[in-house]
Amino acid sequence: VEASIPEPQREAWQRNQITGFTDKDGFEKEVVRHVETTLARSMFNCDEIAAYSATSLAFRDRLVTHWNKTQQRQTYRDTKRVYYLSLEFLMGRALDNAMLNVGLKDIAKDGLSDLGFRIEDVIKQEHDAALGNGGLGRLAACFLDSLATLNFPAWGYGLRYRYGIFKQEIIDGYQVEVPDYWLDFNPWEFPRHDVTVDIQFFGQVNKKTADGKTVSVWEGGEIVQAVAYDVPIPGYDTPTTNNLRLWSSKASGGEFDFQKFNSGDYESSVADQQRAETISAVLYPNDNLERGKELRLKQQYFWVAASLYDIVRRFKKAKRPWREFPDQVAIQLNDTHPTLAIVELQRILVDIEGLEWDVAWEIVTSTFGYTNHTVLPEALEKWPVGLVQHLLPRHLQIIYDINLYFLQTVEKAFPNDRDILRRVSIIEESQPKMVRMAFLAIVGSHKVNGVAELHSDLIQTTIFKDFVAIYGPDKFTNVTNGITPRRWLHQANPRLSELIASKCGGYEFLKDLTLLSQLKQHVDDKQFRKEWAEIKYANKVRLAKHIKDTTGVVVNPAALFDVQVKRIHEYKRQQLNIFGVIHRYLTLKAMTPEERKTQMPRVSIFGGKAAPGYWMAKQIIHLINSVGAVVNKDDDVGDLLKVIFLEDYNVSKAEMICPASDISEHISTAGTEYVYLQLSIPFISTSYSFVENGGHDGEAVTDNSQRASGTSNMKFVLNGGLIIGTLDGANIEITREIGESNIFLFGNLSEDVEDLRHSHTYGAHTIDPDLDKVFDEIEKGTFGTPHDFSAMIAAVRQHGDYYLVSDDFHSYIETHHLVDKAYRNQDEWIAKCIRSVACMGFFTSDRCINEYAEEIWNVEPLVVERN
Ligand code: GL4
Fold first, then answer.
1. Which atom of ligand 1 is nearest to the CA of 139?
2. Distance between first and last Cα of the chain
3. Catalytic residue flag (residue 382)
4. Catalytic residue among 371, 711, 735, 815
5. Residue 156 is inside which H or E element, if any?
6. I want to staple 845 with a disulfide (CB 3.0 to 4.6 A). Which of 142, 272, 750, 802 is the partner?
7. Whether 373 is catalytic
8. How many helices (H) and strands (E) does the chain have?
9. Is 835 a catalytic site residue?
10. How many CB atoms lie within 10 A of CB 18?
């Protein structure tokens, strides 16, 4: 308040309001000004990076005025805000997105051209902001875009990792990890050196009595400082610009501990500083896996404590009573990573603000919502009690108290059931004892949601079943994931977006994706189909060029492009794909030249990172590259088969790849050990006519609980590609929306999965004969030293084939034949693509955010007026 300008002088400020450029001349002026002043360069040494920097700064200036206005408006109106806590925000590039959301990309294009640059080249200079691993982090980024576009007062809170997800290089066919130093120059962040929070670790808890009241005081230990870095998040076609606040760690007391420094202990003062900075140094590169490292827990508490301090500070400004906290604040926990926030808020309210336990707990549970993203057991977070005790002694006490009160209510409700207490306890009575973070998140939240219908059913009937019995079904809900059509259609595929706009009454569909349904009326329009096909072809040409530039391999853009890009994981079954590719290769080799002429040319495109410690995933990458090395130079097959591994798959590459795919693969194994239930999927028939779709007669398709939702499937379909998949997470809902005839489904039934696994382990496990031949070929050394791939083969032949690669192999191969056949009829293929896109309205993240807002957060949009 003291920093505000007094009333009489405000007129001068208002008179000098910065409005930002609105036309080409204005844009050019700003770019030149930034090149010459901010960057201290000139037209004699302005390269593409400088042009990128100046363009970004020009747009950033525009965003900042909207951003300030949005924040002022939200503060003034004092409405409820949403805080999205996520350890990962996989944002990708910001400039293109800012230009499109602000709506001045055409102006920038012309302006840059006047100044001697091509806008595409300028955009490409930007380094991806890659603060995430895969689907979970990208979902958070899509949600931020939708929150701003829908004018919700919302902040994201995360960590500002110095190193995001590593850069992947492929050297001699192997993945090599290179650090991703992305902060060299980042015009999109604003350091707020004045917004800092001291975060405490270690120490001990002492009881103190004052005014007849005993309180717990957490004392001693060490302090690390959190510094805020703010990133503006522009909405599409709205001035609303929200904030993503990322915390960076720093030694408290600045650069050095001067006392230590002056007393000659230079080394130790530097060591302290480095130890503090380590906290936000690096993103853990695992997807769907928690490794229980102490530093990871430190990251979690550091980020959560800083964010809560900030949220509470903001709430306290309005001097409202504490009970109104949940009317002003909704906090969403993106997976269990921020679960300590529940404990931290209880600590603030009880220990610092002096509220009664029950009053505080009511506030806490009304504030939080928790999203579960996986049922994979290795991804469910548990922390050793001893580690929590050491790092956060007061928090462990609070966790024990939360558990005690919780178990007391359970005991009351289930007086004769002793076992339920053991099953639902937040503390697992194992050796060592563990804190079960998902259970803590459920107990401390008012809503728990899964991310696809099937996934949400599954968590309620399996891992969280007891909690449904305790709390009733209303606490649990589903919000099926979605993607932002701004980035994943308009930005990634501008020509398709334009063509769609010409049939759907302009670009309104980008804000209301259900308007895509108007495309149905145009499916039979020959000219429209032709233009559609031309755009797909042009996107394939662009990808072919990228393939040539990065791998040296020439691919035919007229071939069927078959894409599987995502993190490499055994459950996602890239191994099934590459074994299928080898089978195709062997089949082609066995054909006469005449027979080969009848075959459909294919390009099998893979991409994705393996966690550095995931050895099997790295073998899969190596096999893909080794197969490519042989196949791509085999003149017998020529254009009929090419195998490509695209290095360093990330958001900006995805924007190029998705528009260029004809078919993409979403083929993870059906079911897990948790799936004993039989889910009926009413809109999916249990028998298929063989030709119309990818299923098999009498073979029902199935669920997949390993992958919670999957979101890349949505990106591919939205860009006019078809998909081949198991009935997995969101594949099920995609099938419901686009119809069975527009998707290629295959694979075993989930209810058969357990039996199949059992038979592998205890019976004679016969491998599919075609797959056997593939293995024999690998073992002959056709693709390099067989030993390199022995574990992959052994996993199927000897170790029980947990992911059912052999069981699904035949139906996978058959389905690919159907794909080839369908692709020959280009006209019908394009029609299927158009029909599918027309039905994708449901999968916008705008729909997700509206559902969260209504069902979980209870927040309203707040429109900010334009200037
Ligand atoms: C994931 C799921 O594996 C993925 O299916 C889902 O789409 C994504 C977003 O909800 O969350 N869970 C974890 S852990 N990583 C993911 O990508």
1. 9
2. 25
3. no
4. 711
5. strand 154-159
6. 142
7. yes
8. 34, 24
9. no
10. 9
The kind and range of the H/E element at 195 are strand 190-201
Which residue bears the tokens 């002022």?
A: 72
Query: Which atom of ligand 1 has the smallest separation from the CA of 708?
Result: 5
Nearest CA among 715, 737, 630, 738 for reference residue 664: 715
| Burial class (CB within 10 angstroms; exposed 0-12, middle 13-18, buried 19+) of 644 | buried
Q: Could you give the C-alpha distances from 371 to 136, 229, 459, 712, in angstroms and in order?
A: 11, 25, 11, 19
Backbone angles phi, psi at 569, to 5 degrees: -150, 140
Pocket test for ligand 1, best of 88, 133, 165, 288 (most atoms within 8 A of CB): 288
pLDDT digits (tens, 9 = 90+) for 222-276: 999 999 999 999 999 999 999 999 999 999 875 556 667 677 777 887 888 899 9
Average pLDDT over residues 685-709: 36
Measured in angstroms, how far is the CA atom of residue 304 from the centroid of ligand 1?
A: 21
The closest of 69, 57, 483 to 241, measured between CA atoms, is 69
715 in active site: yes
Are residues 819 and 577 in contact, defined by beta-carbon separation less than 8 angstroms? no
Could you tell me how many residues make up the chain? 867
Query: What letters, b where the CB count within 10 A reaches 16 and e where it falls short, cover 153-168?
Result: bbbbbbbbbbbbbbbb
The rounded distance, in Å, linking the Cα atoms of 745 and 730 is 13
Question: Across-strand partners of 83?
Answer: 155, 331
| C-alpha atoms less than 13 angstroms from C-alpha of 426 in its C-beta half-sphere | 26
- Note if 293 is an active site residue: no
Query: To test the ligand 1 pocket, which listed residue (84, 86, 143, 374) has its Cβ within 8 A of the most ligand atoms?
Result: 374
Q: CA-CA distances (angstroms) from residue 494 to 93, 347, 491, 651, 845?
A: 16, 50, 6, 16, 19
* pLDDT winner (highest mean) among 491-495, 669-673, 724-728: 491-495
Least confident range from 169-178, 190-199, 569-578, 684-693: namely: 684-693
Protein residue with least CA distance to atom 11, ligand 1? 136
What distance lies between CA 645 and its chain's CA centroid? 22
Q: Which residue has the tokens 């090395």?
A: 629
- Residue 804 CA, ligand 1 centroid: distance in Å: 21
Tens-place pLDDT, residues 43-68? 999 999 999 999 999 999 999 999 99
Clarify whether 567 is annotated catalytic: yes
Residue type, 230: D
Distance CA 482, CA 50 (A): 35
Coil, strand or helix at 210: strand
481 lines ligand 1 (CB under 6 A): yes
Which of 286, 373, 714 to mutate to test ligand 1, by most ligand atoms within 8 A of the CB atom?
373
| Interface predicted TM-score (ipTM) of this complex, two decimals | 0.98
Are the beta carbons of 548 and 632 closer than 8 angstroms?
no
Sign of CA dihedral 155, 160, 166, 167: positive
- C-alpha 571 to ligand 1 mean position (Å): 13
Which residues are paired to 233 by β-bridges? 242
622, 707, 715, 760: which is the annotated catalytic residue? 715
Q: Which of 80, 490, 569, 572 is catalytic?
A: 572
Q: Which atom of ligand 1 is nearest to the CA of 481?
A: 10
